[in-house]
Amino acid sequence: MTTGEREKLSSGLGTANGNGVGSLGGNTIECKARMRAQMKAVRSGLSEADRAEASELIAREVISCEAYQRAETIFSYLSFGTEVETRGIIRQAWADGKTVALPRCTGPRVLRWYRVTSFEGLEKSRCGIWEPPADPANEVAPSASASSLAIVPGLAFDACGMRLGYGGGYYDAFLASFPGVAIGICFSCQLLPSLSAYGLVEPHDQPVSQVIST
């Protein structure tokens, strides 16, 4: 993000911290709704070139980390809109001979994961997100794979690994029983000192094991 872009975002969202996120008020649900809107605006304020450069750096760090090197299976989201791009990580995982599983939303707070070997044949959901076909032969059970790594999206993360998601609770439910290592990835403007300080952490919220950001 350029200095001008950061100043523009800060003036519109407040200056409670260096990421241009303003102060919040109200109950937890209201606070989360406000923060989601603010963080979407902050992320959208990044230029396409900045997002691409940062995504490449994040991918390199993920691929070089011990959790990735040891994992046999990679459970990854497929990036959408202005999220950190994950296709590079997925392609490298295929090249390294790892199993890659993508999520498919099958109900409230329910993600089912299916092995994919290419980006061909994916199906667009009602939300516009590309998902794998519901082929029982390719379904992968996260709870049965301890030697695995999950790449987790979010609108914001903090230094303790807590995350602010999109509000559906899908990844909180997933992380609650996931036995492997979970890595949250985000742009630096999405990394906050403490989500608890903003009143954004509830008992059901699940942290990731590590956050990679740049």
What this model shows, in words?
The strands form 3 sheets. Strands 6-3-2-1-7-10-12 form a 7-stranded mixed sheet, sandwiched between helices. A 3-stranded mixed sheet has the order 9-8-11. Strands 4-5 form a two-stranded antiparallel sheet. Helix 3 runs parallel beside helix 5. It is an alpha/beta fold. The chain contains 6 helices and 12 strands. Strand 8 (156-158) and strand 9 form a beta hairpin. It has one domain (48-213): Rossmann fold (3-Layer(aba) Sandwich), CATH 3.40.50.
In short:
The protein has a single domain, classed as 3-Layer(aba) Sandwich (Rossmann fold). It has six helices and twelve strands.
Portion in strands: 15-25%
Q: Which bin fits the share of residues in helices?
A: 25-40%
Report Rg: 17 Å
Strand order of the biggest β-sheet: 6-3-2-1-7-10-12
Under CATH at level 1, the class stands as Alpha Beta
From the helix content, strand content and strand pairing, which structural class follows? alpha/beta
Note the total helix count. Answer: 6
The count of β-strands is 12
Number of folding domains? 1
CATH domain topology: Rossmann fold
Q: What is the N-to-C succession of helices and strands? A: HHHHEHEEEEEEEEHEEE
Main β-sheet, in a few words? 7 strands, mixed
Whole-number average pLDDT? 90
Explain the layout of strands and helices.
Layout: H1 3-13, H2 28-44, H3 48-64, H4 66-70, E1 73-76, H5 87-95, E2 99-107, E3 110-115, E4 123-124, E5 130-131, E6 139-140, E7 148-152, E8 156-158, E9 163-164, H6 170-177, E10 181-186, E11 191-192, E12 210-213
Parallel strand pairs: 1-2, 1-7, 7-10, 8-11, 10-12
Antiparallel strand pairs: 2-3, 3-6, 4-5, 8-9
Helix pairs in contact: 3-5
